[in-house]
Design brief:
- GO terms for molecular function: ATP binding.
- By secondary structure, the chain is of the alpha/beta class.
- The chain is built from nine helices and ten strands.
- The chain has a six-stranded mixed beta sheet with strand order 6-7-8-3-9-10, sandwiched between helices. The chain has a four-stranded antiparallel beta sheet with strand order 2-1-4-5, covered by helices on one side.
- Helix 3 crosses helix 4, helix 3 packs parallel to helix 5 and helix 4 crosses helix 5.
- It is globular and about 50 Å long.
- The N terminus is likely disordered.
- The chain binds adenosine-5'-triphosphate.
């Protein structure tokens, strides 16, 4: 079982990239050659919470995360980080200003070591090599990969590769982290560890989490609020209890009659 530290892993980290307490979209639409991937979606992630984003395959979850991190320009609508209008920011600027993400496919440098994978993110954000190494070491200790720091990332078990992706996203303490299906392919026991880890992020890092996840036990177990998309549209938002009873969610997401 992962035992997250009560304190942030890198004391002295520069948290000044943003003091925004909300990451939000309003009236967001994305069209791909006539296909409406997202239609008029509004939501706001608070810095102190785990905010779940669920919906059937093709609902528009990844497209929304791509917009929130500068990987996709919306066709309409506005994206804000606190008071800043970030709608047209490029991806690198989102990360520099404290909005980080993981990818479904991992995107690790598999021929580099585990430590180098984290260091390269930190140097990319402007740290010198020595400082980047310190941050990487602290982060790997926190996430439970310190003993594998010198392994090639490609040699890690699948679940550890997912955790390394989270370590890379969290280095330099972003204000928000967007996790795209972190539990995919994990066993029940691995999901338990992941739940403890993700649930601890808001308090440990003062970092809001947007969690895309198909595993209902994980998303219902650790989200304070959940937003549900279907066919690119919002069909519900509420607490896990409210969402589990919501007729439109049962009908659309779980394939049951309302
Ligand atoms: N670059 C693109 N070009 C064209 N269509 C796209 C593109 N990206 C996504 N889509 C389409 O937009 C819709 C939403 O896709 P998206 O990947 O955001 O859904 P999702 O909810 O993340 O799905 P999943 O749970 O399967 O990952 C789908 O119909 C998808 O085929």
């Amino acid at each position: 079982m992962i035992q997250p530290y009560a304190e942030p892993p890198s004391p002295g980290i520069d948290r000044s990239a943003t003091n925004a307490s909300v990451l939000a979209v309003s009236g967001l639409s994305v069209r791909f050659q006539g296909l409406a991937a997202i239609s008029d979606v509004s939501l706001a992630v608070q810095r102190h919470e785990v905010f779940g984003l669920i919906g059937p395959n093709g609902a528009g979850k990844t497209t929304l995360v791509n917009c929130l991190t500068g990987f996709q320009r919306p066709s309409e609508g506005r994206i804000t980080l606190g008071d800043a209008d970030t709608t047209n920011w490029p991806a690198a600027r989102f990360r520099e200003r404290g909005v980080a993400r993981t990818f479904q496919a991992g995107r690790l440098f598999k021929d580099m070591t585990v430590a180098e994978n984290v260091e390269v993110t930190a140097t990319g954000l402007g740290l010198g090599l020595r400082s980047a190494r310190q941050h990487a070491r602290a982060m790997l200790a926190w996430i439970g990969l310190a003993d594998k720091a010198h392994w090639h990332a490609g040699a890690l078990a699948y679940t550890d590769q997912r955790r390394l992706g989270i370590a890379r996203a969290l280095v330099l303490s972003p204000a928000f982290v967007l996790l795209d299906e972190p539990a995919a392919g994990m066993s029940d026991a691995e999901c338990e560890d992941l739940m403890v880890l993700v649930a601890s992020i808001p308090q440990t890092f003062t970092c809001g989490v947007l969690l895309i996840e198909h595993n209902m036990r994980v998303v219902m177990g650790i989200s304070q609020r959940i937003h549900v998309l279907d066919g690119g549209r919002t069909i519900a938002e509420g607490t896990p209890d409210e969402i589990q009873k919501h007729e439109a969610v049962l009908a659309a997401y779980l394939g049951m009659e309302a």
